[in-house]
Amino acid sequence: MTEQQRRPTLMDVARAAGVSRALVSIVMRGAPGASEPTRQKVMEAARELGYRPDSRARLLRSSRTKLLGLSFSSSQPFHTEIVDAAYAEAAARGYEIALSAVANGRPEERAIEALLDFGSEALILISPTLSNQDLARYAGQVPLVSLLRNDVGESVDSVSSDDHAGIRIAVDHLTALGHRRIVHVDGGTAVSADQRRAAFHTEMLRHGLEPVTVPGGPTEEDGLRAGQSLIGDMPSAIIAFNDRAALGVMESLRATGLQVPTDVSVLGYDDSQFARLSYVQLSSISQDAPLLAAAAVDRAVERIETPQPPAHLVRTPHLVLRRTTGHPAPQMQP
Prior knowledge:
Layout: H1 10-17, H2 21-29, H3 36-49, H4 55-61, E1 67-73, H5 77-92, E2 96-102, H6 108-117, E3 122-126, H7 132-139, E4 144-147, E5 157-161, H8 163-176, E6 182-185, H9 193-206, E7 212-214, H10 220-229, E8 237-240, H11 243-255, E9 265-270, E10 284-286, H12 289-305, E11 312-315, E12 318-320
Parallel strand pairs: 1-2, 1-3, 3-4, 4-5, 5-11, 6-7, 6-8, 8-9, 9-10
Antiparallel strand pairs: 10-12
Helix pairs in contact: 1-2, 1-3, 5-12, 8-9, 10-11
């Protein structure tokens, strides 16, 4: 590291201001003992040098880091929306966020270990895929909050969205429009896929309709393949596992000359940034990313600051109507 790259220290500020290091420390801590002219002189020297107090070092000396470790999937845009909201809530609670991505070649265990190495006082894991036993092992080290997944055992906190309620809202919306031939493109092995698949089966039967599910997954490619598999026996409406899969389904429909929603209605899940794009305008089930993120951060902070047993918080999603659902076309009626 060159002299130009070296981070300015308290001693550098002291020399520039012509005062002692101890006096600079008093000013930087906002402690009494320095006159106002001296305080201004020290702050001006610090600004000119580009000095910034090393808050992390100070916190480490006090055995606190005020860090919340957050792991997310780099391939899921909805996760990034949660991350954005988590930063704001953490700042409001006086904490910082340390991020660690789960990506190709970087398994979830490695992401979590990195967060622990950073000194995270609690972990927030978005859609964790580890076994309950592994999650409990990490929860034995620091408080752990599972976000978007609630089947995590009793030693782990969870904040999730009610998947059954979300699918019920989706089915109720489409049946109210007059749809009777509704297909669910499922999420494959993704977190929450089993719950949404089971909910779709239950809700369709509640309406006296046949529940038809086709294999899908969480990506656009999964939705594209699922849509192509429906050619020749196209339903009047499709509920996709998430917004990304819904975009793939819509692309497959367009490729066959079908229009959304004139010929086929498509309903997504997550209400992600993709759904809100002006040229997409996808109707979707919203999980309220900001509210989920805030609840997860609040729960992590509460577990750090107040001894208490793990808890499970479930929020109810809601429908956001845009332009991809409508009444079924006459030829799509049974």
